[in-house]
Amino acid sequence: MPFPVDQPTPSCHPLRTAHRGWRSGVALVPSVLAVALSTAAAQEVERDPPPAAPPEDPTTYKKLSLAELMEVDVIVTSVSRRPEKLSGTASAIQVVTQEDIRRSGATRLPEALRQVSNLQIAQVDSRQWAISARGFNATSANKMLVMIDGRTIYTPLFAGVFWDKQDTFLPDVERIEVVSGPGATLWGANAVNGVISVVTKSARDTQGLYVEGGGGTELRAMGGARYGDRLAEDVHYRVYAKQLFRDDAATPAGDDRSDQMQMGQGGMRIDWDASPTSLVTLQGDIYHGDVEQPTLDDVTFRGGNVLGRWTQRLAEESSLSLQSYYDRTDRRIPGSISSQVDTWDVDFQHHFPLGTRNDLVWGLGYRIFVDDIENAPTIALYPESVSRELFTGFIQDEIELSQDELYLTLGTKVGHNDYSGYEVQPSARIAYRPARRHTIWAAVSRAVRSPSRVDRELFIPATPPYTIAGGEGFDSEKMWAYELGYRVQPVDWLSLSLSLFYNDYDDLRSREQVAPPAPTPTVLANGLHGYSYGAEFAGDARLLEWLRLRCGYTELRIDLRPDSDSTDTSDGSGESHDSEHTVYVRPSLELPWRMELDCTFRYISEIANQDVPAYAELEARLGWMARRDLELSVVGQNLLHDRHSEFGVPATRAEIERGVYGKVVWRF
Amino acid sequence: MALLTEEPGITGLARARGRSGIRCLGALIALFLWAVPGRQAGAADAPTREYLVKAAFLFNFTQFVEWPAAAFPDDAAPIRLGILGEDPFGRAIDDTVQGETVRNRPLVVVRSRRADELKDCHLVFVARSERSRLDEVAEAFDQAPVLTVSDCDGFTRLGGMIGFFLDGAKVRFEINPSEALSHGLKLSAQLLSLGRLVGPEIGAPPR
Q1: pLDDT by residue (tens digit) across A585-610?
Q2: Which A residues in the span 91-120 are in contact with B, Cβ-Cβ below 8 Å?
Q3: Would you call B205 helix, strand, or coil by DSSP?
Q4: CATH of the domain at A516
Q5: Do A624 and A601 contact (CB within 8 A), yes or no?
Q6: Does an H or E element contain B96, and which?
Q7: Partner of A616 at 20 to 30 A CA spacing, among A193, A430, A466, B201?
Q8: Single pTM value for the model
Q9: CATH classification number, B43-197, choose in 2.60.220, 3.40.50, 1.10.287, 1.10.1740
Q10: Would you kindly state where each structural domain of chain B is located, as residue ranges?
């Protein structure tokens, strides 16, 4: 099934519209109806006056050369929710830096993500994307936790991301951390197969005026501006606005698909260095957009969010952070479900050392969402308005078993949600560093995807006789994950990483016949189980001063089966649409005359259960720094074919056309 | 739940404060705030990795700069590293240079909140606490053979010589070679090749 989130075809597997809401909550303070805190925050917390860092010997760094020092990652936070050096991280993480984004020519978040090889990414049509790690990809992929500055952006309706509206001003992004594999212990809700965390720069690092504009064939026009200044001695701010227009995707016959879109977004961020040890951040965005539909009226969406965060360093290696955000989003989809969703979230985290060998992080979270649904005759969510709460708590201890050599990390998340009650998600990780620049790691984790609105409350059509009549008994999907990894930097100019994984899933979503052998009605239940396994390899070689070569390879196998008492006949074809092989090769060249050339070649093997053929494509960007304050570039996307498809069943899928655009950037 | 529908966002938070749950949580947080070992430390006590790395950079810089002979009273005189303003390094910088020599000169670290007290230094790191006074700082070292380094925004545009910045998660630096030259300092080609060059006659692009 194609799975246009916006227009689920009633008869098809609406299943994939999965979503899931939140994960569980914590039991720690069940009485706290009102305020606890939730997961997301922490991450960027640890920046500027970075509150906490693992204990380190200062003299380790003085032995490094300047070039080596320039390669030390001083901040990486997704994995442990406090900064870590990338090469020592015990997890399958890849990082996209601002420089990577700039040089990729990406104009939207999903395009920026196309640079990491540990994600399955497919562009579905002009604006929809299917993005997941370690399988279970769908337009409504529901096993990923995705955050922008600590704000969770997957929708509680189906636990997937509406990628068309979730964006940020890319020049202000500091880095994007992509973890494949479970991050549930620390991050909780939805972090079953992976975590994507977008971190924007501090307002202090985005001072001055930045203006960009451009246009071309597929990206018809884009423009954006940011201005940053100082309000007071220790208070910096920035404001930004952007707008883009995208052309239609194509039908297999080559006609316009009538899904052109436009989107505008604006926002601000204020960072106040309240004292040398505390940082207060206030930020927010608003956006709106609309997307043409072939026959019905346009899909429209709008929304906004505001987020506040306070981080306090308490002592050496000890810090505290408190974050809260409010998010409203409204989406009108003629012919399908329209929704307004309000989310409010509070998250608290505390990090401190215990003795000389233990490094503890614990936190509490609370989230509530309230929605208001407008149903269509063909598809409905009942009841039409609900409010759901999620409580979470986590604790993790990193124990230094042998100095600078062997680390054991134990932790668990406990959560409570309104659908499946209490959930426990423990994990154990071990990292062995036999020598500098070598890390061998292994992990065992349990993660669950707790039910979301569609799993329990979806009805197709809106009135009986139903094809799908909800999923009253739908319980959490569960997974045990086993991982093994190795990161090494054998010489200064080369770094390599390899991760192997085996995931064992149970209680996956299925469609069960209510009165077999009658094919309908059906209900959503947990009748599938299965496993996936695979390998992720990434390499980064600075071959010459002017040539850097990065490559990635991911191998993925998934096998899903119905339980013996299940009447589901899909074998999981509604839940997972994945390629078995993904290859990325990315040469980056410094050319004379202050020019630079970047190419990304990708080969994606077929998606068997959608009959999407294997394809190879190429993106290329040629940039020229004409003056210190003026950068010109021309970007080609999907250059190898006039058009190709990446996702969806043949009958309804879109084809993505070759696109070329030019762009000008001024910095003042 | 009603919180949201009645009063979204922050207001809702404030209103919720009266509920007993909150007080519990507050007490819990307070407990951890105060029960944790350690004290409300200043930045100097807990250098982050960023500053551990920057300390190593400073040490490295001394190896790639040639000061005029007149900058040292004698052949055995130490290279003096000055920290101007609120020290973000703590002991890290002392530990880094401890026992090291550069061209047979030991290194010593001095700290001050006043630029004129650091005029006899060879390298001065200007902390972020001074970021509103960068003009004055540059003036204070006018003509003196002092390599000035900082992580304040715009430092190299305001008369500074080397400015740290973050590129993603990595520490990088920009160099204003003409400024260094006008102070009688020679920077090695290796240093110049690793930094991003800025300055009047260098057309190098900001990245």
Answers
A1: 999 998 988 899 999 999 999 998 88
A2: 95, 97-100
A3: coil
A4: 2.40.170.20
A5: no
A6: helix B91-97
A7: A193
A8: 0.71
A9: 3.40.50
A10: 2-35, 43-197
